[in-house]
Write a structure and sequence with these properties.
Strand content: 15-25%
CATH class of the largest domain: Mainly Alpha
Radius of gyration: 37 Å
Largest sheet: 4 strands, antiparallel
CATH architecture of the largest domain: Orthogonal Bundle
Strand order of the largest sheet: 4-1-6-7
Number of domains: 2
Shape: elongated
Amino acid sequence: MAEDEATFEIDNSEPTAPGERLRAAREAKGMSVEDVASATRIPKRHLETIEDGDFAVLPGRTYAIGFSRSYARAVGLNDEEIVNDVREQLGIEDPAERLRDGTMQTEDPTRLPSRGLVIASIIAGIVLLIGVFAFSRSFFSPESEADSLLAAEEQRTEAEQQAQAAATQSVARAAAVEGPVVFTSTQDGMWVRFYDGDESNVLMESLMGKGESYTVPDTASDPQVRTGRPDAFTITVGGKSVPRLAENDAVVSDVPVNAKALLARDGVGLPGTAAADPAAQGGPGGAQR
């Protein structure tokens, strides 16, 4: 009994889509996508997008045209043919043809445009010509096209990163301003007095031991401090370390210790005017009165 032999047709036709042609040319040259990226300075993800023909994913049509032109040159294809194919795939028509198709027929007097419409059309035409000129420059100035497009993308990415960093820093600073103020003694027997506005309104007065901490109450309207060892206390605001009040021992008083004042300082120093008290009596770990 005769058996039917299955026949298979092998499609030996060359690829017609611009992305497929670029991929085929690259493979024929034995180049990887990384090789093309190194030669053109175009990111690998953009090259893969071009090979897949998904030009809409690229930042814009100008990028699709410029990157495709550079890719074609890197693999030895006719860049003008590739660019024309990419334009056709993107649906970019000839601007002059678009103007001809939009010309009004004025044989019928009733269809003549009004004066306002004529003025608006003139303005629109000028804007269109400017756009066509700028657009054509990217088409016909390929030498530095890829570099300029990459530079623009890098600038946009850097601006976005800077804006995000600034926003994050602003949020962190706002959170720190609202966070608790904590003083921690680095030595034993450090005398300190915290008070609200006036020293008669004492919040806390103590000889603090090493590692002992005090949190300034958030209910205090004008918290201040007096001590003879401002250098012996570490300070945090909202959990974030801030510079000490001084590098050396000195009698200070009426120093505001709210979060805003402490964060406003530029390095070690007093956030407000601190009055030294030469008549202050010495006490363990600092002055005491």
